[in-house]
Write a structure and sequence with these properties.
- This protein is mainly alpha-helical.
- It folds into 2 domains: about 10-215 and about 300-430 and about 430-490, Growth Hormone, Chain: A (Up-down Bundle); about 220-295.
- It contains 20 helices and no strands.
- Helix 6 (about 135-165) packs antiparallel against helix 7.
């Protein structure tokens, strides 16, 4: 039995909570570098301070995916309890964050905020797959992307809107402007309202209905666990040795201290897989670690191939979030003084640019992506959009007029629309329904790992080769976004 076809209104209800989540995410991405610099962070400190965001995603998303596949809380269902819990925690973080007066406190709050957003956000990807039949996957993820774009536009424009209302957009060193404070508070309230709309306006299919559709709630995968138990310890030891080698190379090569974290994560995965294999071999298979490691090592082929494209594209995006504010304020507005009125105007212009980018993504997701995917396929559509994003990044090296940077953001908006929709539409049609949550969570590892690499390595590269010229980070972003498009050549077009 196939799932019933959902109306356009139902598609909006299913993903409406993402609008509020993305408002919070946009406020975080557009303002955290500004907040960190206002509290005393230097330019080459920013990657290390931002590392909290991808690290929490790496830890939280697979766990939430695993547990949401196995959850059923009466009328609240399978995914919606996580939406609501994450939204409440994220809203509290948004209310508290602007009150920071110490850099360490702001970094800790960024960690908590990103963990909370991940708890709310991760199940939304699987939720679309749960609720829709395969021939609606592209439309469902396109609507979700459009709502993401609308939320991001609203979040990006809030500081500038408050500035237009004559609310102070500057603050003494060591404090945060009122425009940013009010924006975070409005964003927290909007997140609660939007997620609450989805929670109370949708009804998830019961376990019995999911079984009838062929997508019963997962209770485990014996085949995957048996394969894990049959594995040797060699690959685990390789990961551990690689991680230790990275850590021991920091001092001799004079690398930045945050590279220690990269080494610890690589060695940590090796240790986790070693423990998971040992547990599986001893017959203690029913544990979270063995399930997650087993599912990670047993990913379907289409997911492995898409993962490489995700790796490159999200490397570029994380560079954008970290460095757009310092690049635009320095090259288009001519200042590096974070306490100046000109810097404030430049930082607000970045919010407008991000709003334009997300507006382009919202319009493109609704009007262009489904139409283009029907004609040339999802894979080729994604390739074309990624190349547009690469051109957008490259243009930062040439453009010095703030208004002309709008052209850059149009290219980035096209790429952003596709990155948020096409990989998930391809995956939802190819993955087993009963494990959609864990696989979506594991797929997001390939969003998080490149962000960790950027956060740990880019600071070293910036300091060594162009300590006062952050614009060259955009050249690197252009190259890796183009590599993401090339990686899509190996991805097979999903069957209708």
């Amino acid at each position: 039995m196939d799932k019933p076809r959902q109306s356009f209104g139902s598609l909006i209800n299913i993903s409406f909570g993402f609008l509020g989540i993305q408002m919070g995410f946009a406020l975080q991405n557009g303002n955290m570098s500004r907040i960190m610099q206002a509290l005393g962070a230097s330019l080459d400190d920013l990657p290390a301070l931002w590392v909290a965001a991808p690290l929490t995603g790496l830890l939280v998303q697979p766990l939430i995916g695993h547990f949401s596949d196995r959850t059923w809380v009466g009328r609240f269902g399978r995914r919606r309890p996580y939406f609501l819990a994450g939204a409440v925690l994220a809203a509290l973080s948004l209310f508290i964050m602007p009150l920071a007066h110490v850099l360490l406190f702001a970094a800790i709050m960024l960690w908590i905020l990103d963990a909370s957003i991940n708890i709310a956000m991760e199940p939304f990807r699987a939720f679309v797959g749960d609720m829709l039949r395969k021939d609606q996957h592209t439309s469902g993820y396109a609507v979700q992307t459009a709502l993401i774009g609308i939320g991001a536009v609203a979040g990006s424009l809030l500081p500038d809107l408050f500035a237009q209302l004559n609310i102070s957009n500057t603050a003494p060193e060591g404090s945060i402007p009122d425009t940013v404070k009010y924006s975070f508070w409005v964003g927290g309230a909007a997140m609660l309202l939007a997620v609450g709309w989805t929670v109370f306006k949708t009804r998830e299919y019961s376990p019995e209905e999911m079984a009838a559709f062929g997508g019963e709630i997962s209770t485990g995968n014996e085949t995957t666990l048996r394969a894990l138990a049959a594995r040797g310890f060699g690959s685990s030891l390789v990961w551990i040795v690689a991680g230790l080698s990275i850590a021991f190379a920091v001092e001799p090569l004079k690398l930045e201290k945050e590279v220690y974290l990269l080494g610890a994560l690589v060695a940590g995965y090796g240790l986790a897989s070693l423990i998971a294999i040992s547990l599986a071999r001893s017959g203690r298979e029913d544990n979270v670690l063995s399930h997650i490691v087993g599912d990670f090592s047993g990913m379907p082929t289409v997911m492995k191939r898409l993962a490489l494209a995700q790796f490159f594209s999200w490397s570029a995006l994380f560079i954008m979030w970290i460095y757009t504010t310092p690049v635009v304020t320095q090259y288009a507005f001519g200042t590096t003084d974070v306490t100046s009125e000109i810097y404030g105007r430049g930082a607000n212009w970045v919010g407008r640019l991000f709003a334009i980018q997300n507006g382009v993504a919202a319009i493109g997701a609704l009007l262009v992506l489904p139409w283009l995917a029907k004609r040339i396929g999802k894979v080729r559509t994604h390739m074309a959009c990624l190349l547009a994003g690469s051109a957008g990044f490259a243009s930062f090296l040439l453009i010095r007029d703030p208004n002309l940077l709008i052209l850059s953001e149009i290219g980035l908006g096209i790429a952003w629309a596709s990155i948020l929709a096409m990989p998930y539409a391809i995956l939802a049609s190819a993955l087993p329904q009963q494990k959609l949550g864990i696989y979506m969570g594991l797929f997001n590892v390939f969003i998080v790992v490149p962000q960790l690499l950027v956060a740990t390595v880019m600071g070293t590269v910036l300091k060594a080769y162009f300590p006062t010229e952050p614009v060259w980070t955009m050249a690197f972003a252009a190259i890796v976004m183009a590599l993401a498009a090339v990686a899509m050549i190996r991805v097979d077009e999903p069957r209708p």
